[in-house]
Amino acid sequence: MKITVMGTGAYSLGIASMLAKRKENTIMLWTEKEENKNEFLKTHQIKSIFPDVVLSNNITITTSYEEALKDTKLIFLITSAKYIYNVCMDMQPYYRNTPICIASKGIDDKTLNTLSNVVKNTLKTNNISVISGPTFAIDLIHNEPAALALAGLNKKTINLVKRNLSNDTLKLRVSKDIIGIQLCGSIKNIIAIAAGILKGLGYSESTQVFLINESLHDMKNMISALGGRKKTILSFAGVGDLLLTCSSPKSRNYSFGYLIGSTKNPKEIDEYLKNNTVEGYYTLNSIYQMLKKKGINIPLITLIKNIVDHKQEPKDLVTFLIKKP
Q1: pTM score > 0.70 for this model?
Q2: How far apart, in whole angstroms, are the C-alpha atoms of residue 70 and residue 117?
Q3: What percent of the chain has pLDDT over 70?
Q4: Domain ranges for the chain
Q5: Residue 262: its pLDDT value, please?
Q6: Do residues 184 and 233 touch, judged by C-beta distance below 8 A?
Q7: Rounded to an integer, what distance in angstroms lies between the CA atom of residue 233 and that of residue 221?
Q8: pLDDT tens-digit map of 133-165
Q9: Among the listed residues 16, 127, 6, 119, the one whose alpha carbon sits nearest the alpha carbon of residue 65
Q10: What is the model's pLDDT at position 194?
Q11: Where does 2-174 sit in CATH, by number?
């Protein structure tokens, strides 16, 4: 069976490696970069992402939307959240209502929609699912035991994803809350920035866990207010992913926050954003605008936004935590 992975970032390669464990499947990566394609065809590597990783022989690559989507039975969308709309628009001429699984995390900054709604509205399909959970791409590639939450708009798509992606090292647990799963995956990236700020300021793990515990209450309230279920916070996509992303320098969101907390040089921060995809940075404004539109006040989100926008000092985060009711 042919499965297409749209994107060649770190997580795209991690998911592709999981899908490729079923040797009867052919996994086709789509990339917009000719240099990635040419390198992969010669070496079965993309060294700019993983210098020491050689991917499975049943993974191929293309720069053509038509070739990527022709006769495919399942599509994984794993580009940066801000590009999902554009990629879907480019897919339109070749898309044939094939089941889609979204592994990108974030909120569309133009429409303030979840990514599942962006895909649904753009490609006119209900064959949509999402995955989210505490997994770093390199850990997937190294076959470390890991888990993801899976939700979708219909059982057929959910079952197809679960059958092809779950294996001896990756567990998928089905949720009925496609909105909540996506909001968890989006909001936790923002909280990870705050956790990194605390680390950059020199505070201990105790203070970072203080933040995580307080943010769980806010996340639960935001998920409920924006149309999800409060209990989804307990899923792999919720507390599981929050703990992982808020405690590891492998997370670009955490590393970005660390830079904000540890340096006074805006040029260094801007350079990091230029060279790295920091989903939490883009999601922060979207979540802030969504909450504002609905008249929902979450002071922690406002504070993080103000710190990132250089309107408040990083140290104000600690003051906020101590004084929060």
Answers
A1: yes
A2: 24
A3: 100
A4: 2-174, 187-323
A5: 95
A6: yes
A7: 10
A8: 999 999 999 999 999 999 999 999 999 999 999
A9: 6
A10: 97
A11: 3.40.50.720
Q: What single letter denotes the amino acid at residue 109?
A: D
Residue 264 has pLDDT above 80, yes or no: no
Q: Which amino acid is at 22?
A: R
Please compute the mean of the pLDDT values over residues 164-188 and round it to a whole number: 97
The label of the residue with tokens 């940075």 reads 281
CATH 1.10.1040.10 corresponds to the domain 187-323: yes
End-to-end CA gap in the chain: 54
What does the H/E/C string look like for the chain? Answer: CEEEEECCCHHHHHHHHHHCCCCCCEEEEECCCHHHHHHHHHHCCCCCCCCCCCCCCCEEEECCHHHHHCCCCEEEECCCHHHHHHHHHHHHHHCCCCCEEECCCCECCCCCCEHHHHHHHHHCCCCEEEEECCCCHHHHHCCCCEEEEEEECCHHHHHHHHHHHCCCCEEEEECCCHHHHHHHHHHHHHHHHHHHHHHHCCCCHHHHHHHHHHHHHHHHHHHHHCCCCHHHHHCHHHHHHHHHHCCCCCCHHHHHHHHHHHCCCHHHHHHHHHHCCCHHHHHHHHHHHHHHHCCCCCHHHHHHHHHHCCCCCCCHHHHHHHHCC
Angstrom distance (rounded) from CA 51 to CA 60: 18
Residue 265's pLDDT is 82
| pLDDT attached to residue 102 | 98
Backbone angles phi, psi at 236, to 5 degrees: -55, -35
